[in-house]
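Researcher: Next sequence.
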Amino acid sequence: MPDLSQIVKAYDVRGVVPDQWDESLAELFGAAFARVTDADAIVVGHDMRPSSPGLTRAFARGAASLGVDVTEIGLCSTDQLYFASGHLNLPGAMFTASHNPARYNGIKMCRAGAAPIGQDSGLAEIRSMVEGWAEGGAPEPAAEAGTITQRDVLDAYAAHLRSLVDLTAIRPLKVVVDAGNGMGGHTVPTVFEGLPLELDALFFELDGTFPNHEANPLDPKNIVDLQARVRETGADIGLAFDGDADRCFVVDGRGEPVSPSAITALVASRELAKHPGGTVIHNCITSWSVPEVVKENGGTPVRTRVGHSFIKAEMARSGAIFGGEHSAHYYFRDFWNADTGMLAALHVLAALGGQKGPLSDLVAQYDRYAASGEINSTVDDQAGRMEAVKAAYERREGAELDELDGLTVTTPNWWFNLRPSNTEPLLRLNVEARDQETAAEVRDEVLSIVRA
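Model: Next structure:
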């Protein structure tokens, strides 16, 4: 029995296949998921990784053994699974390890209506149940097993997204999309079909071994091909999706990356035009520009912790219309409060195609400050290093400290956030300032303490 503490993370189950888990364990997770969600039926899908179909079918067998009917939607992006969960009003499970290397796989799970399952809202219970069964035998099967049927929801998913953003009247755009051999290669052609977009497809072949580059656009080396193609072809915009295509990264017509905070601000302004006075969620690492733009457009910004389950919970509590994170996760009330990079991409395309200028001019109004990007430091004592940084700044004149998520220190001219990783011996630093020189000074000062 593998150590489940190594594969059960903040909002999903993830491990190395087959070293940490296999189909027999996936079957137990299916049964536990059915038991914890107390559902009569569930929906499941999977990405293109070689291990995904077998793990998904085992999970379905486990749920069906307890009398639960299972709808398999087959190959899908994670936001396509969220669509199915919302559209069918069923708990859902997606087999993917997102942007992680090929040897990994995992499950992202949600309740009916794409509501999150987090550590305190079902995941710990699922883990405990699986551990108990693994040590003492499988659960007692139901008198009558549930059914397992197949259903294709790709066209319905695409139609729903296009109903939320009208691109029919935009000027024609040349768009380069790097799917990274991930699920964007499955969803993009159907979503873009019939729109005034000339699609230049990079690495659309579904291949969970990732032969071209890792499907993790957050790492700059993985968008080099996209940047080169945009510059080479004179495209208007480049889009890069991660492995399960729930996140979308943007480069402008010069091939320069566009900050996810700028995308959050842009989309927020568009959503507020549709829903005046609405609330917009942003995590504590997004740029100062996000709450500024929200207020300028008559909305109410709400700051929250980093992470899927926290954002979704706050959106449900506040009735927020939209939420964005520095990691390029974008959440929409019109999409069951779930995250969908594809819908964010459609908003950007609509904004770009609705005016004559280049994307760089459009986003300049939302990209107002100098940022360090996320910098990771490996440390032996996360808590001790965090305390050392706190001690260095808590008496700093003009500095305000808060610990909503890690440590955030804010002054009139700069801020930084330092957070421990939940899964690795790392501290993650993000710095923003009114100019690049100040951002570099603050970055170096904090790192000198962290790495002392």
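Model: The chain has a mean pLDDT of 94. Residues 114 and 336 are 6 Å apart (CA to CA).
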